[in-house]
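Do me a favour: review this protein, sequence plus structure tokens, and tell me how the chain folds. Record follows.
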Amino acid sequence: MTRIDALCFDANDPQELSRFWGEFLGWERTDEVDGPAVLPADDTGFRLRFLPTEATKSRQNQMHFDLTSRTPETQQETVDRALALGARHIDIGQRPEERHVVLADPEGNEFCVIPAGNSFLAGCPFIGAVSSDGSQAVGYFWSKALDWPLVWDQDEETAIRSPHGGPKVTWGGPPVAPKHGRNRLHFDLAVPSGGAPASAADRLVSLGAARADTAPCAPGWIAMTDPDGNEFCLRPAR
């Protein structure tokens, strides 16, 4: 079964963006062949990788983090730490009565700091969810692709979570924003040890994915898109 190996950010300055996220999350930074990465220090289960791009960010990302808070004080501490490292407040249309805080990292990638007591994220680590713009069908696809159970399926909104814990991955349902160009964030999936990438790709195609040439995949990896057209990369087993 394929698994999430990394969540990748296109970055104008990969070293600086990895520095921000490494220091903010308290995760170890490392240099890989095609760019820096930060390694999880909790049960998140996947790395963050930062890939060089010259393209500038021009629209709201299809995916963003929802970060958990234990108390009102820790929510404010998270916000203060992010701002001190180079984040900024942004307005994406959140209402005054909503208590989550919307921030952007130094390259404009959005993330939310959720108030304490949020029952949907109860039991999740600091990265409580990778919150995604997407259809119900794409939530069903990723549930089957990763063999993660649906933990939410109401009003065309879906969420999945690994049986081993970690963040949820959620999709907000319609209306889904039109896609213009390549997403700035994408998943790298790993083929299990001993598995064949071509066979894994064929299985994903049978579930609704498509082979593609738009994802920034390393040589020997397979570029694909999910049923909503979001890019991801399938890498051979190590």
